[in-house]
Amino acid sequence: MTQRVDDIGTGSTVHWTHPGRGEWTADRNGRAVGEVRRDAAGYVATRGRRTVGTYRSLDAALDAIDHRSLTTLQPGRFWTLALTTINVGIVAAISLVATAILR
């Protein structure tokens, strides 16, 4: 098993392990971040269930996982955040209207 450690600008550390032939996994603070696997097309980088891309070199695939911005919002998370914000706004508006009526 080989291990590679990179520091990211956020101060967190990504630990890479090489559990088997053609497989690399990354974790940050004990939480799985992504993985890279070798196939016929090249090196496939994935984060969670989402494929980040297929790369010709191992370093490029590892870099795609390591340095993928932590501030980029995944589409599923964006919609969850947007709908939560809308729902909170609706509840606040209803409470303001109810307060005004009951006074």
Largest beta sheet: strand ordering: 1-2-3-4-5-6
Gap between N and C termini, in Å? 70 Å
Counted up, domains total: 2
Would you list the SSEs in sequence order as H and E? EEEEEEHH
- The geometry reads as elongated
Please give the number of β-strands: 6
Largest sheet: 6 strands, antiparallel
Kindly state the percentage of residues in helix: 25-40%
Uncertain runs are 5-11
Secondary structure tally, helices: 2
Rounded Rg:
21 Å
Structure, described:
- The protein is of the alpha+beta class and 103 residues long.
- It folds into two domains: 72 residues, no CATH class; 31 residues.
- Helix content is 36%, strand content 39%.
- It contains two helices and six strands, in the order E-E-E-E-E-E-H-H.
- Strand 5 and strand 6 form a beta hairpin.
- It is elongated, with a radius of gyration of 21 Å.
Task: Describe this protein with a few key phrases.
membrane; six-stranded antiparallel beta sheet; DUF5808 domain-containing protein; 103 residues; 2 helices; transmembrane; 39% strand; 2 domains
